[in-house]
Amino acid sequence: MNTFQEHLHAMVRCRTLQGLIDIARGCVGNPLILANITCNVLAITSEPEILDPRWLQISNEKALPVDLINVTAYQSALRSGSPSVTEDSTGLTVVRCPVAHEQRLIGYLMMPRYSGAPSTDEIDALMLVADLCAIRLQKDLNYVQYPEDMLEFFVSDLLNGVIRDEQRILERCRALRWEFKLPYRVLTICREAHPEKTSGSDYLALEELCRTMSEQFSDSTIFVYGNHIKAIVPVHDKTTRDALVLRDLGNFLTEHHLIGGVSQSSSRIRNLYSRHQQALKAMEMGTLLSATGPLFFYDTYSVYHCLELCMRDNDILQLCHSAVLLLETYDRKYGTELLGTLHAYLSCRQNICDAAASLFVHRNTLSKRLEKINDIIHVDLNDAETVFHLMFSYRILEYYGATSMRESYDTWMEKSPTLRHP
């Protein structure tokens, strides 16, 4: 299969407008912008090398300036059946291709040419992209339905929160004969290295993995969405059996160099949207904190999600226990490792032997460090509330380091590896 055929197949199967435009970028060889009839940008390719102020404005504001639309050119192109190629006031060649349904304009596809006039092949490819965008928009606007893909489209709408009325959801489930098993959890799966763009070959590989996974986990609903694999996996009543399923999922992901975020379980189908968000957030946080996969559970990372929300409006360091900040200051001043020592000691449930082993030091060395720590912070480590606040403070420091001071954070973790989340 040649490159163009790979891209074509990937575009036809793609479920998101942004993914479609990203794949199309490889076909047309130029930047692309897709907007709806109200000038809101629905998808735009990432072009870090373009410094044109207008392009940067569109990328940042996700809206097209009205004077750039040139509706007359789109209507003329719609009547003629071929894109409009014109120059704007700055001399930039812009190819405008209408996105239409039954000869009615429903969107704008624009290809600015920063390197000269477009070729015939590029024009033909752009027209094909416009048709695929129209199909995608028709689905989103409920103009048409596709029986062979209705279940996947329906589940996509549930995951993205488009449909939340439980009665309507149940009616659609019955109509589609979807035997939805409760309770369930949602998984979002992708490659270990996050690709910036999805090529045709990448998409084909994901589809093959999806088919293999569906065969192995036949009681789950699994499909490709964008550059991810989405899985809705039933939760089994027996804990041991459920653990086996998760183990098998983890082994599958490891074998195929994949990672996945895992949501909490739910017994309500209308919660698919929130569980989908949890799965995405778990994978994001696990990757951010360089945790060991392949499965990242939201239950493990919900505290970091909480810190992310707090960090938007507050200095999260002020939430730390003052004892932890004292130790951090002392370590920085004297080159000691007391902060990591206390963390290892608390993580090992205050067992000196286990903590010493995790730090690769003699227990007498650890005992002396703990005496020094006590002289500095003067807190009761037998008090459950105090220990909770101290451990929460370590999570704050880890998240703050991973998001706000990446370089010093990596150096810090090399010196005190026990601080890094497992």
How do the helices and strands line up, and which of them pair or pack?
Elements: H1 3-13, H2 17-28, E1 33-36, E2 41-44, H3 53-61, H4 66-69, H5 71-80, E3 84-87, E4 93-101, E5 104-113, H6 120-140, H7 150-159, H8 166-175, E6 184-191, H9 200-216, E7 221-225, E8 228-234, H10 239-255, E9 258-262, H11 272-288, E10 295-297, H12 298-311, H13 322-334, H14 338-347, H15 352-359, H16 363-377, H17 384-404, H18 406-415
Strand order of the largest sheet: 2-1-5-4-3
**Total number of strands:** 10
Order of helices and strands: HHEEHHHEEEHHHEHEEHEHEHHHHHHH
Residues in helix, %: 40-55%
Short description:
The protein is an alpha+beta fold and 422 residues long.
Q: Which features would summarize this protein structure in a list?
A:
5-stranded mixed β-sheet, 422 residues, alpha+beta
Describe the structure.
This protein has 18 helices and 10 strands. With 422 residues, the chain is of the alpha+beta class. The strands form 2 sheets. Strands 2-1-5-4-3 form a 5-stranded antiparallel β-sheet. A 5-stranded mixed β-sheet has the order 7-8-6-9-10. A hairpin with a 4-residue loop joins strand 1 and strand 2 (41-44). The model is unreliable at 142-148 (pLDDT under 50).
